[in-house]
Amino acid sequence: MAENSIKIRAKLKDDVVTVKALMTHPMETGNRKDSKGETIPAHFIQDVTCSAAGKEVINAQWSGGISKNPYISFKFKGAGEGDDLTLTWVDNQGSSDSATVKIS
Amino acid sequence: MKADLKRRMLLQGTIATSAIGIAIGAGLLTPKAVLAAWPKEAFTAKDIPGALNSLMGADNAEESGDINIKAPDIAENGAVVPVTVSTTLPNVESIAIIAANNPVPLIANFNLMDGSEGFVSSRIKMGKSGDVIAVVKSGGKLYRTAKEVKVTIGGCGG
User: Are A67 and B124 within 8 A, CB to CB?
Assistant: First the structure.
């Protein structure tokens, strides 16, 4: 559980909050082999949830087909400036991380 | 005496830190419950109908001009292909992103809650050239659109 594995920004403009987030994660599919020809075990983020002002706004389910150090962006209505926005990811090995920012 | 005080402060610090550790550990329980909902079958399906059937319960998606996929025509690096899906369809429940020629076609499924705009953006891996397909669930029905992306170097090998 690396610290600060999530960089997140949430901006409010004309009622719509635009969220952009970057996570640090290897996103191994389990199909790749290392230099010795041994399979690198799958290790990828499976689940990303984001809630704002205590309400869930998006829930994403991912495969290893998302690029390394994943990027996600989405938009939603119904939150105001200064509200807390929390993003949490969980990977297939059970690790997780979470970050909270204030909507600006 | 002074050294003793420092030692005490150090101990207090340690206790505070471990309390945070326990709090995070307890917090882990919630995401794990969410993990159970991860649609394993859909994410191991080798073909698109299989993935859609298991994910959305149907594969009869209707072609729609109201979905827009923004992705490069030619991706030099298949390991990182930026894809943005936006739609003007009403009541969007979910958006799935599929790379038709990947070993496991279903890449991601985004469940949008009330208040979400029909917009998601991410970066995906593509093994070889092929269609990027967006499937949007709106008002209980499935809509799709596709965009061809040529890949110069594949992103799924080693």
Answer: yes
